[in-house]
UniProtKB/TrEMBL annotation:
Name the UniProt record assigns to this protein: Putative Late embryogenesis abundant protein, LEA-14
Membrane topology: Single-pass membrane protein
Segments passing through the bilayer: 43-66
UniProt keyword Membrane present: yes
Amino acid sequence: MSEKQAHLNGAYYGPSVPPRETYHRPGRGGGLLSCCCSCIFSLVFKLIFTAVVLLGLAILVFWLIVRPTGVKFHVTDATLTQFNFSSDNNLHYNLAANLTIRNPNKKIGIYYDRIEARALYEGQRFSTVTLTPFYQGHKTTNVLNPVFQGQQLIVGSNLLEEFNQQKSAGVYEIEMKLYLRIRFKLGRIKTGKFKPRIECDLKVPLNENGNSVGTFQTEKCSIDYFN
């Protein structure tokens, strides 16, 4: 009996007893929050998608009704009666141009609130003139006559070299830029102000004392509405 009791009171060397497994039920709060976030994101996405579709349809309907067409700018004639450098690098010039503006739209009129014309040679501005504002109606053509006359100091490393080459050819490469402030009119609705820039690359023969090596060819100008 004493032997049995000693055995029972001693250490136990059998296999270890595994711990009791516990089961945790997922909390209801986390699942509900996740569901709400998912519903909100889905709703926002649907609203954005619907807004984009409606905007696209509105633009399409507007285009089908109005059929807007870009305004056309052309320099149809340019006369250069003086273009030479003095010994102190002053450019003496006398340039007159005919600029036609064609509005081909049937339902859109244009207010030209400000028209600034600049003349440049080899990237350097040598003259600026401001032209009279006007309104251009539907399917009409207007002619502007900017005149650049005077003298201006111009310097540059390759300026005289380029000038002498063009002088020998009798044709000068002159750039004319127009800086506009315009508004569009559709019926009684007037838009906000836009500031497009017009660029015209001209090759103008010098006409001195009625002598010219050639005639000016009409040049189409480029338009940058997002300048």
